[in-house]
Amino acid sequence: MRQSQLFTKTLRSNPKDAQTISHKLLVRAGYINQLTSGVWSLLPLGWRVYKKIENIIREEMNAIDGQEVFLPTLQPKELWQETGRWETIDPPLFKVKDRHDKWLCLGPTHEEVITDLARQYIQSYKDLPLAVYQIQNKFRNEMRPTGGLLRTREFVMKDLYSFHTCEEDLDEYYQKVVEAYHNIYKRCQLKSIAVEASSGSIGGTSSHEFMILADSGEDKILVCEKKDWGINLEIGRGQNKCLLCGGKLELKNAIEAGHTFKLGTLYSQKMGANFMDKDGKQKPIVMGCYGIGLQRLMATIVEVHHDEFGIIWPKSVTPYDVHLVGLDLEDKKVEKLAEEVYQKLIKAKIEVLYDDRLESAGVKLKDADLIGIPVRLVVSQKTGKKVEYKERGSKKIGLLTINEVIDKIK
Residue 236's closest CA among 195, 206, 284? Predict the structure, then answer.
C-alpha cells in the first residue's frame, strides 16, 4: 500500500478529550475516527489490525470446537421479557419501535436469542455438549463512554455460548475456554490474569474477568504476588490473602479484556430450554457464556505496547509487516531503488506500507514511529544500493541488501 493513497492522516497533537494512551495514539496515528460519543470508525490501518485480532480469536474458538454463527442485532421485546431483563439490564437497552408498533432492541448481548435457538434445536442429551460463537456488533447504552475504544456504545464482540447436560461438563468446558482466552492474549503479547468477578446483569453462578495489568486501567484488582490468582476489588474488599497459596495480595490497575460466565440453568429455566436425559426425563440445559470485545482488545494492546514516540505493534496484529520509508525521492535513482524494494517485498508476500509521500525526513520518520509497524526500512541517498533496517522500539540499525531483508523478515 502506498502511503500517499492511504485513506487517513496522522495528527501532530492529541485529541482534546483524550485521556488514555490508546485513545491518543490510535487517533493521532490514523487508525480510528470518532463519529459521535462512544461510536468509532475503524480506518484502513485500524481495520487491518482488527482483522488480525479477529483471526486469532476465530482460530482459538474453532480449536475448542466452537461453531460460528451470526445472529440478528434486532431482538424482539418478548424474548427479553421472558428473562425479565427488558427493564433491568444495565446499561439499559437501546429500544426501537417498528412500523407495526412492535418494540425491539439493539442487542448488547445474545443470551436470549441463543437460548431461543437452543430450545428449538436441542432435544436430547445426544445433542450435547455444544458450543456456538459469533463475532458481531453489540450496542450498549453507556452513560459515559470513555477512553476511546475502551468503553464505547457500539463495538464488535466475540460471544461464545456453551450447552451441557450437567455442571461438571460445564466446568470441564469452561476450563478449555479459560485456556483459549489465555492463548488469545498471549498471541497478542499480553499477560492475562483470570480474576474472580461479579456476574453483573448477565448473571449466573460465577464468573471471571481476564485482566491485563496496565497503569492506565480503570479496574482495581487484588493479585497474588506468587500465583496467577486474583479477585476484582469490588467483590474482594477485605480479602488479604491468596485463596490458592495464602500469599500476600497486591492492589493493581488493570484493563478488563474478556469475561466468562457459568450461567448454569438461569436462562434455560426461564425460557423453557430443556433436553431429555438418558432416563427420559426433561431437564434444563446447563449453559456458559464467554465474551471478548475486539476493539477494546485492540486498545489494550496499545496501552501495553507503546513508547513516547508512538505505538509498537506486536508482529501478530500489526497492520503491515514492514514500513518502507523513501527519503530523497526527488532523486530519480533513489526513487527507482525504493520502487524496486517495494515490488520485491510484495512479490515475497510481505505486507508493506510504502511511504512514497513528498514529505521531509523528519515528518516521515516521526510518522513511522507513531504508526508503530514492527520493522522500518529506509531507502535514501545515504543508504546507497542497500536498505536501512530497524525494528520498532530498538535503537539498532543495520544496512542490508533487499534479499537479506526478505530473508530476515521471513
Answer: 195
- Specify which residues 213 forms β-bridges with: 254
Q: Which three cell numbers, joined as nine digits, stand for 147?
A: 477512553
Of 198, 184, 214, nearest in space to 260 by CA = 198
Region at 385 (left for phi over 0; alpha for psi -120 to 50; beta for the rest):
alpha
Asked whether the beta carbons of 195 and 232 are under 8 A apart, the reply is yes
- Kindly give the residue spans of alpha helices, DSSP state H, lying in 30-166: 44-63, 77-83, 111-121
Q: How far apart are CA 20 and CA 302, in angstroms?
A: 10
Q: Do the Cβ atoms of 110 and 71 come closer than 8 Å?
A: yes
Over range 194-208, report the average pLDDT: 87
DSSP state of 382: T
Q: Is the pLDDT score of 228 beyond 80?
A: no
Cα–Cα distance between 51 and 210 in angstroms, integer?
Answer: 21
Of the candidates 388, 403, 390, 389, the one whose C-alpha atom is nearest the C-alpha of residue 347 is: 403
> Who's near 408: CB < 8 A, 6+ residues apart?
389, 400
Give which of 297, 277, 382 is closest to 52, Cα–Cα.
297
- Asked if the model's pLDDT at residue 339 lies above 90, the reply is yes
Which residues share a beta bridge with 264?
A: 287
pLDDT digits 0-9 by tens, 14-70: 999 898 999 999 999 999 999 999 999 999 999 999 999 999 999 999 999 999 999
Q: How far apart are the first and last CA of the chain?
A: 19
**Model-level pTM?**
0.96
Q: How far apart are CA 236 and CA 205, in angstroms?
A: 16
Length of the chain (residues): 410
CATH of 322-409, one of 3.90.110.10, 2.40.110.10, 2.30.110.10, 3.40.50.800: 3.40.50.800
CATH of domain 3-307: 3.30.930.10
Q: Which three cell numbers stand for residue 217?
A: 486501567
